[in-house]
Design a protein that fits this description.
By secondary structure, this protein is α/β, with parallel strands linked by helices. The protein has one domain: TIM Barrel, CATH 3.20.20. Helix content is 40%, strand content 17%. The chain has 13 helices and twelve strands. The strands form three sheets. It has an eight-stranded parallel β-barrel with strand order 3-4-5-6-7-8-9-12, surrounded by six helices. Strands 1-2 form a two-stranded antiparallel sheet. A two-stranded antiparallel ribbon has the order 10-11.
């Protein structure tokens, strides 16, 4: 699988990567359950490649995602060579505070839970949800601590992982990040991140484009999908999905393949991050990534209108 450089670091990341959020069993977010056995089978399959990057966070399942990965690393006899692990600094989930002390605490908890001495990629996570964002951005704040952790040699690359573009882009302009993660805002349905991706690419910041399936609907289809960008479907939000679906049916292309390759074919994007919750999910994504899609299909599907609004503006966010 093609690999791309992460900024000026030595890391090389496959163009497709996997997320471990749903492995933590978060039915309120994803609408389904994931047992521990299924999660471990999924991680075991991930370790077989060819995708080399796994992304998690301290707050996914309130620590459960990292716990499962730590167990899988032990079961595997260590983290696989040339594979990349990405995790995140998270706020205090009870108080919403996110100062330098909390950032360091989050990182140390991740190392202990993952049973590792260092991490490949470390992001500052979800500043849009903190009590006071100045705790993050001020001198000596959480961002300073993130870069200090890198200076100490405990991580190889540092990034910013969040959703809201209006908060994210100004932070990107003020700090020398290696990488970023943004989700749900560059898909077949939505292009809100386009301007930010232009900026990041020109600055040499590697881009992880997450959630190409708009939290599942573009993979499951209009008849099976129940949520879109972590929210209940409505007739209004389902309408553009059905238009894409009709073009897919016309060309005999699975919509999941089209949604995934929309991101994969963008030269600005270093890797496209898909959440996986079973070995079958992994295999399906690998097949979709290799599906042959004719140029005529892209001519039609890219001519459809798309949104540039925040797709999660009305989302009621529930941590964990």
């Amino acid at each position: 699988m093609k690999k791309n450089n992460i900024g000026k670091t030595e890391l090389k990341i496959t163009e497709l990567s996997f997320g471990a959020t749903s492995l933590a069993n978060m039915p309120e977010t994803y609408g389904y359950e994931v047992t521990e056995d299924r999660a471990q089978k999924t991680l075991k399959r991930f370790f077989q490649g060819p995708v080399n990057m796994l992304d998690t966070s301290r707050n996914y399942g309130l620590g459960r995602s990292e716990e499962l990965i730590g167990q899988a690393i032990d079961n595997n006899g260590g983290w696989p060579k040339d594979f990349i692990l990405s995790t995140k600094l998270d706020r205090n989930m009870q108080t919403g505070h996110f100062d330098a002390t909390q950032a360091r605490k989050s990182f140390e908890e991740s190392l202990a839970t993952l049973r590792l001495d260092s991490i490949d990629i470390l992001h500052l996570h979800d500043p849009e949800y903190v009590t006071d964002i100045s705790e993050i951005t001020k001198k000596g704040g959480a961002l300073d601590e993130l870069f200090k952790i890198k200076e100490e040699g405990l991580v190889k690359a540092v990034g910013l992982a969040m959703g809201r573009i209006d908060i994210m882009l100004p932070i990107l302009k003020d700090w020398d990040f290696d990488i970023l993660i943004n989700h749900n805002r560059y898909t077949l349905l939505n292009r809100q991140a386009n301007e930010m991706y232009d900026y990041a690419h020109k600055k040499g910041i590697a881009i992880i484009n997450a959630a190409p399936f708009a939290s599942g609907i573009l993979a499951k289809g209009s008849k099976k999908g129940k949520i879109i960008t972590y929210q209940d479907l409505t007739k209004e939000t389902l309408a553009p999905v059905i238009k894409i679906e009709k073009i897919c049916e016309k060309f005999g292309i699975e919509m999941g393949a089209a949604a995934l390759q929309f991101s994969l074919r963008d030269s600005r994007i270093s890797t496209t991050l898909c959440g996986v919750s079973s070995p079958e999910n992994i295999q399906k994504n690998l097949v979709w990534a290799q599906t042959q899609i004719p140029s005529e299909f892209w001519d039609e599907v890219l001519a459809l209108p798309f949104s540039t609004d925040d797709p999660e503006a009305n989302r009621v966010y529930t941590p964990g």
